[in-house]
Backbone:
């Protein structure tokens, strides 16, 4: 790799559009893969409405498919995990020897799954604490927060150095970023938020603020967080119980919010049930933890999804 | 009491209209209390569309309030339990010395609550295994089943004899009926059906058949039944595990059905959450049983109700 990294962003939605957009605005070379509305985005470029200041990237490098893209030093995978079965085929054309593939996705065990399918690939995960959504193809609205945390699946000297450089690029481009030591810890900590709010906004057909205002669902949200801690612990990840209070307070401070799963549900798209529910439940179960309320939420979500997805 | 009993039916809906109607058709004296649409029902009488044969009772004795009614030997309380706070005041004008008050209602501990408010009152409970609903004031549609089981809260020679006579009257009038030995057993057995289906049809906004067809919710329904058995056991009520399979098969055999709580939810009426969820959860909790999935369903139901009931 040279001193200046070439980034590939797969999926230019709420996450890819924002983070890739920030890197491009900061002068990094970013190649965006756009599926829906490619022609339009290619013509008009990207627009990011951000609470940190709106900006446009009329000359953003837009591609329809990875076959047409240059090889990348770093790939930010910002696709829904429901599309992860096509990920190996998508990645192949843009990989160099030491390309680092970072899954900026929600849910547990996708890094392990990718690594099993593509042995030798350098894989990391990233958790984004952000409220953002895609208004239209190439048009992202960033509402709140933005911190991104990275962690490697397996550490090597090369991959550690590269990930540090990625983090420095993010920070230099105005995004709060950090590198964490342990990927399972990163993933489980994010699940403490994702497990209660994604599923409950779908099943109750509501937004985060209403769940927090009702004393019964507020209690249930907390119970679901505590079960997540129990699942994490069974997998060897210790999360301090104060973190639950912190996540509740964090959500209280948020604007009324529909998490990504609720947006998927409303748009009748597949929901990320596997990564956020089934994989963590399976991992916990293999370690002897029976997470009853999370399992119930998973069952309710599969029912809801079956009503529109045949 | 004489040889011929006078029945009072409080609440002439799906249950009161059907069972009271069958008794009246069979020649028993039945005084119906009708709240909604009194004038109309008074004029037109009752109509019952039943799979056992439709019938009309144009001369049914219809009353707007218990003040106007004769005293009764037997009171069939067929009101929603959400109205139970006004029950003692409603009952007073129609009570004789040995009047038997039978709560034909869903849920746990209402007989105990009534008895605590009206010490010395002879109280029984009844579980109706029936699919029926009120089409309009004075117009009942009976779709399936119909068995009714009675049990006394406290047994005395007088009340036992009277309840036997009530059961005989029901049978003579074409209703399958039985007297059971133990009220808590009667109540908990009915909860094995009521707990999963009432709440889940509301929270999933669906009908029983769809919950049974989806493998995830079918499993959850069974889990909720098994938790109900666990709650019952903690309260000293042993229900054989085969009963769960029987209830699942019974529901499979039913026409697609919206339980009463789903009808209440759709009509934005208060739901019977207390009797079907909160009271059983409280009883189980006092006996050391933590029914996690039932508790979660209760919390979800309170949220759903708070969205339309202020």
Residues:
């Amino acid at each position: 790799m040279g001193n200046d990294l070439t980034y590939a962003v797969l999926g230019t939605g709420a996450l890819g559009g924002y983070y890739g957009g920030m890197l491009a605005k900061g002068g990094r070379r970013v190649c965006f893969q756009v599926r829906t509305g490619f022609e339009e985005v290619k013509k008009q470029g990207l627009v990011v409405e951000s609470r940190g200041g709106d900006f446009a990237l009329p000359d953003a490098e837009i591609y329809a498919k990875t076959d047409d893209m240059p090889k990348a030093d770093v790939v930010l995978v910002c696709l829904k995990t429901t599309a992860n079965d096509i990920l190996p085929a998508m990645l192949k054309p843009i990989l160099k020897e030491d390309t680092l593939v970072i899954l900026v996705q929600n849910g547990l065990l996708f890094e392990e799954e990718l690594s099993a399918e593509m042995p030798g690939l350098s894989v990391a995960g990233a958790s984004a604490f952000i409220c953002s959504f895609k208004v239209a193809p190439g048009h992202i609205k960033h509402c709140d927060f933005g911190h991104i945390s990275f962690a490697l699946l397996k550490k090597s000297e090369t991959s550690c150095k590269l990930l540090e450089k990625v983090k420095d690029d993010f920070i230099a481009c105005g995004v709060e970023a950090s590198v964490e030591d342990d990927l399972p810890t990163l993933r489980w900590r994010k699940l403490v938020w994702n497990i209660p709010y994604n599923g409950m906004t779908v099943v109750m057909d509501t937004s985060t603020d209403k769940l927090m205002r009702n004393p019964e669902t507020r209690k249930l949200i907390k119970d679901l967080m505590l079960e997540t801690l129990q699942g994490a612990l069974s997998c060897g990840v210790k999360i301090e119980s104060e973190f639950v209070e912190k996540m509740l307070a964090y959500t209280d401070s948020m604007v009324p919010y529909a998490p990504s799963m609720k947006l998927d549900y409303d748009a009748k798209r597949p929901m990320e049930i596997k990564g956020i529910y089934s994989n963590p439940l399976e991992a916990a179960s293999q370690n002897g933890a029976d997470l009853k309320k999370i399992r119930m939420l998973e069952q309710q979500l599969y029912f809801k999804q079956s009503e529109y997805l045949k």
Notes: Residues 167 and 177 of chain B are 6 Å apart (CA to CA).
